[in-house]
Known about the structure:
By secondary structure, the chain is an alpha/beta fold. Helix content is 36%, strand content 20%.
Amino acid sequence: MKTMKGIDVSTFQGNVNWGKVKSNIDFAIIRGGFGRNNLDDCALSNIKGCQAQKIPFGLYWFSYALSVADSAKEADYACDMADKYKITMPVIGYDWEEDSDDYAKKNGVNMTSNMRLDFATAFCERVKARGYIPLLYINYSDLSIGFDTLAKKYDVWFSCPGGSKPNVSNLTIWQYSWTGKIPGINADVDMNYCYKDYTSGAPAPTPTPTPTKKEKTVNLTFNYLGRNYVSPTGQTRTVQRILNACNYKGADGKKLDEDGVFGVNTEYAVKAYQTKHKLAVDGVVGAATWKALTGAK
């Protein structure tokens, strides 16, 4: 494919005239938000501008995670936005920078290289589980603390203004300038080259649901350990407890929260259980799966 030219934008570019921008770029990556579901002030106007001008666009999320769970949740926020606004370039970028480190330190978290790697992995794996393509935004400093291993696993959006094209594993987008000038944008803008065709032949997003209060258990009545479970919430909590006891993990690789909420992690563990026990792998705790889990008659 030909090299595509694009930009990444956020509130720092202000109000963008996408009609003027269109003839100068092939794609855009829009900051959806940051931290705990804080939307970028210009995210919606940028999305609508790209949609109106038929400019392919993806999203990125600026991380302020303090834990692996926070990082996976940030990925969910970004994927929720991608679902809602039907992004046309199915990439979601993970952006951790110096300000992210400062935020962690102010909140009593002393980041280590391994923590950085774990956070990035949690974000990227959640994006993959939601049906999108994770994009790891890194630079040479990140490579020096171990991100070269992740660069072999995920598509890389590499920041290196000026010079020649970086020689980095899985390089798909090169951010080659932070001071670009584009008609329709009254501020400096980051410029990018893309070497992978994300817009044709890319896997269509097949999002999995984020954890919600919607239950996926069938409304069964079974006696288990002397208690009748009629309520789906009670059944779900029991399923979570049994799966934990049998060492089935969630999509994030962690023990399930026994909270009675049938979300992404519980569904993932249920499917793993169904696969191992040769049940219909649908992620739904119906009569057969419930009986196998609880031994109910």
